[in-house]
Here is the input.
Amino acid sequence: METVSSKRIAVTVNGERIEYDLEARRLLVHFLRDDLDLTGTHVGCDTGNCGACSVLYNGRLVKSCMLLAIQAEGATIETVESLSSDGELTPLQQAFSDHHALQCGYCTPGMLMSATALLRADERPTEQQIRKAIQGNICRCTGYVNIVRAIQAASGQAVER
Ligand code: FES
Ligand code: FES
Here is the structure.
């Protein structure tokens, strides 16, 4: 039952429309991870700084720790789980693997979602555009070079290994 502090929302997550009763204060990242068990979306800071929680909201890149889940009412959300199907890696995911674009992997879901948003908008981004697109995603391990190479490779550009 809906109360002042709760609300029923209808939202499409990774292609599936669902209705859910939510506490008004629940963050979108916690709804995805804890209620829907979509734990590919990570929590690195809870303050909007690290980008580990990045998802697509109506096709636009957002940090899901910065939104209330009830703000997803009527929206389409895509998480990292939506990228591949039947266990097959997408070209972007394969490029991350081929170019050693991850070490601990904590930042990787957010990086993949930022890169996905970029590549949908621009099929062959420049290195500068790639760096700008991932500037909201902190990686503590890789130094970013291999991440940039992976995104270049995924867009069909020749890169060093
Ligand atoms: S957990 Fe959302 S930006 Fe770090
Ligand atoms: S691979 Fe460890 S934080 Fe990026």
Summary: Strands lie at 6-13, 16-23, 54-57, 60-63, 76-78. The pocket of FE2/S2 (inorganic) cluster (ligand 1) is lined by residues 43-46, 48-53, 63, 65 (CB under 6 Å). The mean pLDDT is 96. The chain has two domains: 7-82, 91-154.
